[in-house]
Design brief:
26% helix; alpha/beta; 7-stranded mixed β-sheet; 11 helices; globular; 606 residues
Length: 606
């Protein structure tokens, strides 16, 4: 089939033409479920072919998909925001560019209303008049049960049905339930098959292993089967959450915002694919109510910063949200729990790379915890909510945890790099003699002996050729001149353990603190290499070397800096957001820290 070329003039003279809507539906339309749709645009200016001599020119397309009004317009109230950015490779000459539009551009039935454009490496843009075309209903395959007309999801149903013939346990029933879920996804036009296939393939491998056990006389238990299937359920939940997440982001910030598009393109170009790249974002302080971090609900847009990292995440090997993900400015934990759920949903749906979330001192609403006791407390967010929202009981990407702990480690495949995430807010819900919370996270950091033992025996127990990067929210006490946390428990022991790992020594960690005792042996006679320790919390950036260890502080993502009496606000500017990509070169033991938004790039050796 020939590819239609749409001619668009970037010249928009006179006010009567500035809001003109160009209906291209006679030449091009789409359908919910379409993916990688080729659209060729020929740009002209006043009838003359655009020569496109600017280097690093990239095409883009942005707008809304939904129900049009009588003027063929779709707005945020009636549609879903969509956007697409191509690359300089899409420039094909003669004024033409090709757009291979993903399925995300056609999320629902209705029409597209937006515009095309070109952008250079410095963020200068040129756009067309507004464009209209139809997006047809969500039934791309009318031959649902007829070969060879089978969508990928329908082929998946064939495969799932075959698997359902297994006879041990109640696996047949569970496969039937899975088939029903997939049919629901087809009915709603959600055919992003990759997320299904990855986890289903993993489950199939495990089930084949169980079949072998049966052959060998080792019958798997129901617990074994549940463990195999739970990751499927969670990944399906994640897929179903995409539409809800999109609605949320449209409400709070409109998805990818124009102030960031140039920086996103620039960030993509600056990420070196030859390095091991780890995304780090911290102190987003997402809230949907008035906050110190952003008056008039400006801080609610912080959650859209996750989309900025999501736009480059295909270039990342791993990403971590390092605490203070949400804010605690409410006297009712129901608001806090909803924000935590929104954050987790958005994080795991926006990113296209393996990822995890750590806790900070603002996440659990402890600044509002009162003396009413822990049972029935209306202020504190229970850890069970974090376990659920941050997928700590599922291990979506094969990360290793101590049970369903917030702390973890993740080995980047084939790269000999291990990411160790530390939870320095393991605070218990202990009450003091007055009935108040004894160790509120808001101003107290606790690392328990159980985590230190796990670090010594598991997370830091690596081969000699493994390079380890450590990430946590609060800087380790003693590595910052003025640590803003009043009370730090067992930070000195964590620092001792990391220095022992670096130096390859053995010893014992001990503490007689009544509530947080420690008695942990360690031995690192066969050790790996410590890259550095990365933290947030302070809303500043810093780098220093202490006893041979690199300590790095990352800037806050929320668009506010300073204290209550002297704040600088960056909202609705290119400096609103800030996060980093940590590029690691294990062969030469070098790190390149590339900053998005505010912040200064940093290079160091380890």
């Amino acid at each position: 089939m020939a590819i239609t070329t749409i001619v668009m003039d970037v010249y928009k003279p006179g006010s009567e033409l500035k809001n003109k809507v160009v209906d291209i539906s006679d030449s091009f339309n789409a359908r919910v479920g379409d993916n990688q749709v080729r659209l060729v645009i020929k740009y002209i200016e006043r009838g003359i072919v655009e020569r496109m001599e600017q280097e690093q020119l990239t095409p883009f397309m942005t707008g809304y998909v939904g129900q049009p009004d009588e003027e063929l317009k779709v707005t945020a109230e009636t549609g879903t925001v969509v956007s697409y950015h191509g690359s300089s490779n899409d420039i094909i000459g003669g004024g033409k560019v090709k757009l291979d539009l993903p399925g995300a551009m056609f999320p629902q039935e209705g029409a597209f209303y937006g515009y095309f454009g070109l952008e250079n490496s410095e963020g200068k843009r040129v756009t067309t008049n507004n464009v209209f075309f139809r997006v047809e209903n969500n039934n791309p395959d009318i031959y649902v049960d007829t070969l060879p007309f089978r969508t990928e999801l329908q082929k998946l149903l064939d495969w799932a049905t075959a698997q359902a013939n297994s006879t041990f346990g109640d696996i047949k029933k569970q496969w039937e339930d899975l088939v029903k879920i997939i049919k629901q996804q087809i009915a709603t036009g959600n055919d992003n098959i990759d997320d299904f296939l990855n986890r289903l393939k993993l489950a199939q491998e495990k089930l084949e292993g169980y079949e072998k056990q049966i052959t060998d006389g080792n019958i798997p238990t129901q617990a074994d089967l549940d463990k195999a299937l739970n990751p499927i359920d969670d990944r399906l939940d994640k897929l179903e959450a995409k539409e809800e997440s999109s609605d949320l982001l449209t409400d709070v910030g409109g998805g990818i915002r124009d102030i960031f598009t140039s920086q996103i393109s620039n960030m993509k170009a600056r990420i070196n694919p030859d390095l091991v790249n780890i995304g780090m974002i911290n102190d987003v302080h997402y809230t949907d109510r008035d906050s110190f971090w952003g008056p008039d609900n400006d801080a609610e847009t912080g959650i859209t910063h996750l989309l900025n990292m999501g736009e480059v995440s295909e270039k990342l090997d791993f990403a971590v949200s390092v605490g203070d993900n949400t804010d605690d400015n409410n006297g009712d934990n129901h608001f806090s729990i909803k924000r935590i759920e929104d954050y987790g949903m958005t994080w795991f749906t926006a990113l296209e790379c393996p990822s995890a979330v750590l806790l900070g001192n603002h996440d659990d609403n402890s600044s509002h915890a009162k003396s009413s006791g822990v049972t029935g407390n209306d202020y504190l967010v229970p850890d069970s909510k974090f376990i659920q929202a941050y997928r700590q009981n599922v291990n979506l990407f094969g990360e290793k945890r101590n049970g369903n702990s917030n702390y973890f480690y993740y080995d980047i495949p084939d790269k000999k790099v291990r990411v160790v995430g530390i939870n320095d807010y393991e605070n218990p819900n202990t009450l003091d003699s007055n009935g108040n919370l004894k160790y509120p996270r808001i101003n107290t950091s606790v690392i328990t002996g159980a985590q230190l033992k796990w670090l010594a025996s598991d997370a830091l127990n690596v081969s000699a050729d493994t390079h380890v990067i450590v990430m946590l929210h609060c800087p380790i006490d003693g590595t910052l001149k003025d640590n803003p946390t009043d009370h730090c428990y067992n930070h000195d022991l964590l620092r001792q353990l990391l220095e022992a790992f670096k130096n390859g020594t053995s010893g014992t960690l001990t503490s007689s603190t009544t509530d947080f005792p420690v008695d942990v042996d360690y031995s690192f006679t066969s050790k790996g290499t410590l890259i550095g320790v990365f933290a947030g919390h302070t809303h500043t950036e810093d780098y220093q070397v202490i006893n041979g260890i690199n300590y790095v502080l990352n800037l806050n993502s929320v668009g506010c800096a300073g204290n209550a009496g002297n704040r600088t606000l960056y909202f609705d500017t290119k400096d609103e957001d800030s996060w980093s990509v940590i590029g690691i070169d294990p062969a030469n033991k070098k790190v390149k820290l590339t900053k998005f938004g505010r912040g200064t790039d940093l290079d160091f050796t380890y």
